[in-house]
Write a structure and sequence with these properties.
alpha+beta; binds zinc ion; 9-stranded antiparallel beta sheet; 6-stranded antiparallel beta sheet; 19 helices; elongated
Length: 1006
């Protein structure tokens, strides 16, 4: 007889699909269904359970987008099910295509105790195991009709534009017997079949496994799968028992559910998504003692504590057993490109404090699988916050270059290193299938040097997290010939072993730039503006409140500041600040930013009042870390009287001249000339402050991406409707240029202040373009191989050329308050108060500007149509400036100034700073009172130029003790050793390394 005439692969897959999987549930009886429809916002479970339910039948439609329907499900287990494992199976109208992102539910008992989520891949609720028969089923299912977003333009993301259509159909609600042997047989077959397909044709193991499956199928009566399942399993037991090879790769599998804190749903839905998934997880943890689930984001735990206390209690119990493992130690999985230095610190300190206080846990690994690239400031901040390890996988999304390592040391701008791992399976939502396991092994760049990798498993974003099927699959591949070994264990168990076996891992220095999602530095401008503004208001609020507490005995608003920080940190989540969420999310964020601004202004106002005292002395409060107009840093004093600025107009334009800089605005409203009178050189290599439009239709993700081909076409806005000169402030005259283009209007102002070497520019836009990128260009007469961009606590250099694919791929870059280009002896900087996206280019072939110039552009606005079809439509104000003759130190100073305008008050007299620093290279980033409410003053400072500095810090109050602590404000010998200090009276002398961040604690003498 010949073998193999028919296709065994197809036979196995067909039998699984049509015979085995459908037999997983046997006998079934329907339950009674009634429903309470809430098309708008959810209500508390107790209220919903007590509501009026109307008749409802399986097969009926339910669920307006983002509405909630409560199903009341009642029934009785038939006597015939006695002795069997019985479950309630509910299909809310799941499509077969995916595990999350759609309708989902959470089941409650009649007294409001949450039991378990209902999601596409875990659509069952426990009823009896084993059943006696006659058990009553009486459950309430809070079902959410979250719409599926598929990348096309839709109005479903905004409660104001959602239509009345019902999105889902209740397809099933039955009490059913789970045929445990069939269920197990399905997993056996899937595991073995998947394994065999991954093994090469030449491997006898492949054929052994397939032959075992073939024999099993030959013997199985497909008309009686239930009756034959146990024997079929016995037939496969031998091939399943054969152990893994000694050299098999080791995979640490970690249960996980990546739940975006807001994205294609509003924050309130994330809270429910967390409750559903975490309910599943704690139930699984009880069923599977070896199961370990890693969960990041203190915010998500805080939501459970505050909104779902019963889920929270079960989480705490599972955490105490080591099964629910808090990881990451951050408030949320934030973006890391745009948050400012102090905000990134607070992501860590707020997260760590929550985990320590509420769960008694100190996380050792940073957990950012999905953020859109990683700032080179992170290694130092992670180490200073007490982390040892770093996990991501997002770099596998690079479109151009392949990241060379999976396990490596990542080195930041200051030289700090953190041991880093990227799961080589390239996913954070694995099902532990053979193709994922084997892809990870094949892909693992460290083979031969390291033997292990990590693999998060479970469905995120409303998929319900890990399932019993994935865990059971994990057990089958724990020690299986041909497969990598899979052990379910915690991330820290993995990292400790990975670091121990590979201490000499390669080093990646500098940022991890994601070659994708470059539009996230610009999309949803209100997020960028709100973030930058709130960060600086928080700096001011803490500085002035701490100063008022020490100087005037004012109360320090600890609780209020904590809450405001936490609200802002949530908005730095990696789909909110990047602008990649639906309209609903961004509207709520705008409202929050506006409220936080008012709250912070109130705190600042109270503190300034306490500090200024009674009197008529005109005072200027300077929250910036550098002196300005005679007012010391972090202090208040009368300002020097400014000089005046010369204004001249003629047919060709307007000239502003402050004897340092002469600015000429041409007839087309652009900057025709910026003459540095000190250096006696022209700064511009062509017209400056030119608005440029590019068609912006990315290939993949609209709000996320700017593709290189966007720059193939460009249109400059040079049409002018009016040019006006405004000399109402003779110390700061300005030229106002009005433009109209299609439905959009622009008002651009250029101002020059007396004594300034900075041209202040504002572009106000009423923006009605679609799918268009708006940039503003500054061709500079500076020959620069590289640009310097501010990041958290320092800066990174990036080449201006495109010699290699790595250089070319960084065609759109993120900078914080400033971007600098320079040649020996001369440089210029562009500063901004609310934008992040930039590009820096050399002249194109044939460019009239010729060799030796460098063009710096800021990305002002975009208008993608997905997921928010109205992104950025309407009015915006964008402030930025051009600093002439700037070294990097000038860029640092002007960057702070552009974001921290002075405040005027009248009062009794000057207010001395709490601290002053002698070194111009050393910058104070934060002054606050300690989180432990001891009254100690905490000062965070850093070396800003990338060199070494000796700094003398003078406290403006009697100091009993001064010491260096970690970011969480705890004393730590290792961290103190990094910054040796000497104290003499109220003076502290510190030696700082390049870009070193130091947290200093000062205890006032009492
Ligand atoms: Zn995400």
């Amino acid at each position: 007889m010949h073998h193999g005439l028919s296709d065994l692969t197809r036979r196995i897959e067909r039998t699984l699909r049509d015979r085995l999987i459908p037999a997983t549930y046997g006998a079934a009886v329907p339950v009674e269904v009634s429903a309470l429809h809430l098309p708008g916002e959810p209500i508390p479970p107790a209220e919903a359970i007590a509501g009026e339910y109307g008749p409802f039948a399986v097969g009926e439609r339910w669920g307006r987008a983002f509405g909630t329907t409560w199903f009341h499900l009642t029934g009785e287990v038939p006597a015939a099910m006695r002795g069997r494992r019985v479950e309630l199976v509910v299909d809310l109208g799941f499509e077969r295509s995916g595990p999350g992102f759609r309708s989902e539910g959470l089941a409650y008992t009649p007294d409001g105790v949450p039991i378990k989520g209902i999601e596409p891949r875990t659509a069952w609720l426990p009823v009896a195991r084993p059943a006696r028969g006659g058990e009553r089923v009486d459950l309430y299912l809070e079902a959410a009709s979250n719409p599926l977003f598929d990348g096309s333009v839709t109005t479903l993301g905004d409660p104001e534009t959602i239509g009345p259509e019902l999105l889902y159909r209740l397809d099933r609600a039955e009490i059913a017997v789970l045929e445990e042997d069939v269920h197990a047989l399905v997993l056996d077959v899937q595991t073995l079949h998947g394994l065999a397909l991954e093994l090469p044709e030449s491997d006898p193991r492949r054929h052994e496994v397939r032959r075992a499956l073939e024999v099993m199928l030959d013997e199985l009566d497909v008309a009686d799968v239930v009756g034959g399942a146990a024997a079929a399993r016995a037939r496969l037991a031998g091939v399943l028992a054969s152990p893994a090879a000694p050299s098999a790769h080791k995979i640490s599998a970690v249960g996980h559910a990546h739940i975006d804190s807001a994205w294609l749903w509003p924050v309130r839905e994330t809270i429910r998504k967390c409750a559903r998934t975490f309910s599943n997880v704690v139930a699984l943890a009880e069923d599977y003692p070896d199961f370990v689930f890693a969960c990041s984001s203190a915010q998500q735990y805080a939501w459970m504590r505050d909104h779902h206390p019963l889920v929270w209690e079960r989480i705490r119990a599972a955490a105490a057993r080591g099964q629910f493992v808090p990881v990451g130690g951050m408030w949320v999985e934030s973006d890391t490109n745009m948050p400012g230095g102090e905000a990134l610190v607070r992501q860590f300190t707020q997260g760590k404090r929550f985990f320590a206080d509420e769960l008694g846990v100190d996380s050792r690994e940073v957990w950012l699988p999905d953020s859109f690239g990683y700032s080179a400031a992170l290694p130092q901040l992670a180490r200073l916050a007490g982390f040892r390890w770093f996990l991501s996988q997002k770099m596998s999304w690079n479109l151009t270059n392949r990241f060379p390592h999976h396990t490596f040391w990542w080195e930041g701008i200051d030289g700090s290193r953190v041991f880093t791992h990227f799961p080589p399976a390239d996913t954070y939502s694995s099902e532990l299938t053979a193709d994922q396991l084997h892809h990870g092994v094949r892909n693992f760049a460290e083979k031969g040097r390291a033997t292990r990798s990590l693999l998060p498993f479970g469905y995120g974003d409303g998929g319900g997290g890990p399932t019993r099927e994935i865990i059971e699959t994990g057990h089958r591949v724990a020690d299986l010939e041909g497969s990598p070994r899979v052990t379910i264990e915690s991330p820290s168990a993995f990292f400790a072993a990975a670091e121990a076996e590979y201490p000499d891992a390669p080093v990646w220095a500098g940022e991890m730039y994601l070659e994708f999602h470059r539009g996230t530095y610009t999309s949803q401008h209100a997020m960028k503006r709100g973030n930058r503004r709130t960060e600086h208001l928080l700096r001011e609020a803490e500085l002035w409140a701490a100063t008022a507490a020490v100087r005037a005995g004012a109360a320090y608003p600890y609780a209020e500041l904590d809450r405001i920080w936490q609200e802002m940190l949530l908005l730095q989540f990696h789909d909110i600040l990047p602008g990649s969420s639906i309209a609903w999310v961004h509207r709520e964020a705008r409202v929050t930013y506006a409220r936080l601004e008012v709250e912070l202004e109130t705190i600042i106002d109270g503190a300034l009042g306490a500090l200024a005292g009674e009197g008529a002395v005109p005072l200027v409060f300077n929250a910036a870390p550098h002196e300005r107009d005679g007012v010391p840093a972090l202090a208040a004093a009368p300002a020097e009287v400014p000089g005046t600025v010369l204004v001249e107009g003629d047919d060709d334009g307007v000239t502003l001249d402050n004897a340092l800089v002469r600015v000429r605005v041409g007839r087309d409203g652009t900057l025709a000339s910026v003459l540095d009178l000190v250096a006696d050189r022209e700064v511009l290599a062509g017209a400056g402050n030119v608005l440029q439009l590019h068609p912006d239709t990315p290939n993949y993700f609209d709000a996320w991406d700017i593709d290189d081909f966007a720059f193939a076409r460009r249109r400059d806005l040079t049409g002018v409707t009016a040019i006006e000169v405004d000399t109402s402030d003779p110390a700061r005259p300005l030229v106002r240029v009005r433009r109209t283009d299609g439905d959009s209007t622009y008002v651009q102002t250029a101002a020059l202040a007396a004594g300034a070497r900075r041209v202040d520019l504002v572009t106000e836009v009423d923006w009605h373009q679609r799918e268009t990128l708006l940039k503003v260009a500054f061709p500079l007469a500076v020959h620069a191989d590289r640009s310097a961009s501010e990041i958290q606590f320092g800066h990174v250099f990036r080449p201006t050329h495109t010699n290699t694919s790595w250089d070319a791929a960084r065609f759109e870059i993120c900078a914080h308050r400033w971007l600098h280009v320079g040649e020996p002896g001369y440089g210029a900087a562009v500063v901004n108060a609310e934008t992040y996206g930039h590009d820096v280019t050399r002249p194109a072939p044939g460019d009239a500007r010729g060799p030796g110039s460098t063009t710096v552009r800021l990305s002002l606005l975009r208008a993608p149509r997905y997921p928010d079809p109205e992104t950025d439509q309407g009015r915006h104000r964008l402030a930025y400036g051009l600093v002439v003759g700037a070294e990097i130190a000038d860029a640092v100073r002007e960057g702070y100034r552009a974001n921290l305008p002075v405040r005027q008050r009248t009062g009794a007299g000057p207010v001395a700073p709490l601290v002053s620093v002698s070194s111009p290279a050393v910058v104070v980033e934060a002054v606050k009172l300690a989180d432990d409410r001891s009254g100690d003053v905490v000062v965070r400072l850093y070396e800003s130029l990338g060199g070494r500095a000796k700094a003398r810090l003078t406290a403006g109050f009697g100091v009993e003790r001064a010491w260096v602590c970690d970011l969480v404000e705890h004393e730590d010998e290792e961290i103190a050793a990094l910054a040796p200090l000497t104290t003499a009276g109220d003076e502290v002398t510190l030696d700082l390394g390049p870009f070193q961040v130091v947290t200093l604690r000062l205890r006032a003498a009492r």
